[in-house]
Fold:
Amino acid sequence: MRTTVIFSMVLLTFLFAGFKFARPQDSPERFLISIDNGIATGMEEFKIEKSDIGYRLTGTTRFTQSGGLAIWTQEQVLAADWSPVSYRLELESLGRKEIIETAKEGDQFQMRADLGTFIGRDKSVPVRPRTIILDDIVASHFQVLLNAIASDKESKSEWHCLVPRARLAIEGKLLGTKNASGTLNGKSIQIRKYTLQVANEVKEFWAEADTYRLMRVLVLVPEVEMVRVGFALTAAAVDSDNAPTF
Structure:
């Protein structure tokens, strides 16, 4: 009898552990992107899969603007705690290709850029707890942040943000959360709004409350909105966004 109880507890732990953060998926996640009120629009598709050391994120974003088509292709290797191990971003536009890379080397993160016509300046920053890669117009980076928040046992509000495109390391702080509601493919879901301040900029993002699955991102400067295909905030949630976070 005791053996049966122990087995049942182990099985339940296994089944429910995956609901603590957005789970690796078989089909890609898709987000619509609007920049500066539609001056540039696009779609990001990404997948997160388990790997030998943690997780692997791959994704492609296609932007359309007056100058034509731009394609971003990324690959990020993540440790089991969702901290970055390596990152590579390839940007192609108007026949020009740029490569942005970040890698954990010992106790440092090395950020490098090959801008096609010249090699950008490298930057090294110390490895610190709760470090993430965060680009304002890459939705999947916010999903990784959510997964890291879900797995952070200390529940700290401070996060260290690497911005490889600019070769910057900036301190970020979660200001708070707020419950809201929305619909996904016509079905009601409970969501949670997060507010992250990075330097003097505020980034807001919404996720399904139980799964930490990203639904929407809003960056105020520059104005960037990224929304999961099929998701919409309820009217009440949109109205309440003007209220304080706490």
Observations:
- The longest strand covers residues 168-184.
- Helices lie at 2-17, 139-151, 235-240.
